Amino acid sequence: MMLRRGFILFLPRLVGLLVVACCSMSIVYMLACTPKGDNQQLALPRVHSPTVKEGYEAILQEREEQHRNYIISLKKQIAQLKAELQGRTEQLKNMQNQYPDPLDIQLDRSKPEKAQANLLAFLRSQVDKAEVHSGVKLSTEYAAVPFESFTLQKVYQLETGLTRHPEEKPVRKDKRDELIEVIELAVGSLNKPDGVSKAKPRVYTASDFVEGIYRTEKNKGTLYELTFKGDAKHQFKKIVLFRPFGPVMKVKNEDVNMADTLINVIVPLAKRASKFRQFMQNFREMGIQQDGRIHLTVVYFGKDQMNEVKSILENTSKSANFKNFTFIQLNEEFSRGKGLDVGARFWKGNNVVLFFCDVDIYFTAEFLNSCRLNTQPGKKVFYPVLFSQYNPSIIYGHHDSIPSLEQQLIIKKETGFWRDFGFGMTCQYRSDFINIGGFDLDIKGWGGEDVHLYRKYLHSNLMVIRTPVRGLFHLWHEKQCLDELTPEQYKMCMQSKAMNEASHGQLGMLVFKQEIETHLHRQKLSSKKT
């Protein structure tokens, strides 16, 4: 009890001692932490000192100066960051103006001029990506996007499937409206005053339209090339249009004068004198009489039937007063590639259009113009897709007689097909053929040499025009696949032979001929019983 009372009496004294100790420590801390001046530490003014007011003012003034300097430093750093950010923003704007991103092209109503400029820049970049001004290198013969051709009335298309026809009127409204729009736009462009000529300009109409080709690349747009009649014979107007998934843009408007453009038709041949006689009838009518700007080069292999072939050629020369032909004889095994290569290199005149042809080909004067219009030295070569005739004895087997050759040459699903797997008939300038390296002369016999040349053009920067044409026909003939062909050549030959006979439906009728006759016989018996 005495100890507890002593502790209670001592507790207030202990608390007082602790308070005094805390106050002492506070005074010592204030003295130690008082800010210093430039050369000495400022002392805390004593309460009763006469300089107490001046001391506190000095301390506050120094603290204010320190804060002011700190703020000035921060402002300098902020200004530097703003300047750097502004510079980066200008660089980004310059890059966007130079290479507009199609995703960023928006119709900004607040800045319509800028939006229109960005849109035009994007559309022109689409033109640059497409094969409008020059070709692009392609890896294989299947990478080329083929053109399709059209006139005012018909469209000539490759991908027919089982329902569409190789030649048909544009049934789908979107396709019909598209082609009408393109022709009307081209006519309007031709009739637009150039502001230079003072003579009364000619008024073009849709009836002046000769033919056009077009193709669509799904990541770029649709390219159109339209040909119109010119001011004189053998002169044409050519309009190139491009639809970059937007408005059609006029790319080119040029005059094309083909009056002096000569075509050298090169035909390699061995035997087959009767086929050559038929070919010369077509050549005389279309090449000599209707076109007139043509040369014929025959490269003959061996001597069998050579005199008969030369006689046919000389008789045509005399009767048609035609001197523009060359006959070259080679004493070696037939090679189509070798014959065409020799014929092309034999030419010594000016640069000329070469048409590589076969003896079982029929062409029109309109095709010869297409050959000229779709070739350009150093820029374009022409690979037409010809229409291959089926076996007339199968097609017209149910008729009393087979029609004449001219009557057989109609483009229908039942009469033939677009030979889109063949690359043998081609038009190009001689300079391009020589520069590309010509044919692979190691290939012998049938097939293969044309594909190798086609691939060479695809691997170059030349534009390859691949389109079906209405004036080039492969006449049916029985195909012989020789045992000495390589396995690959023999397979290609047999595939070609099967394709040449008849359409899918006609071959089916032959395969099931016995079943059909049995059914008809049963029907006849059934009708007699009733």
Describe the overall structure.
- This protein is of the alpha+beta class.
- Among the domains are: 141-190 and 203-257, no CATH class; 263-508, Spore Coat Polysaccharide Biosynthesis Protein SpsA, Chain A (Alpha-Beta Complex).
- Helix content is 44%, strand content 19%.
- It is built from 15 helices and 16 strands.
- The protein has helices at residues 2-32, 52-98, 112-129, 173-190, 273-291, 306-320, 336-346, 365-373, 392-395, 405-408, 430-436, 449-458, 487-501, 504-511, 513-529; strands spanning 148-150, 155-156, 167-168, 209-217, 221-229, 235-243, 249-257, 263-269, 294-301, 325-330, 353-356, 361-363, 380-389, 416-418, 426-429, 463-474.
- The strands form 3 sheets. It has a 7-stranded antiparallel β-sheet, with helices on one face. Strands 10-9-8-11-15 form a 5-stranded mixed β-sheet, with helices on both faces. It has a 4-stranded mixed β-sheet with strand order 12-16-13-14.
- A hairpin with a 3-residue loop joins strand 4 and strand 5 (221-229).
- The longest helix has 47 residues, at 52-98.
- It is elongated and about 140 Å long.
- Residues 1-5, 31-45 and 99-107 have low confidence and may be disordered.
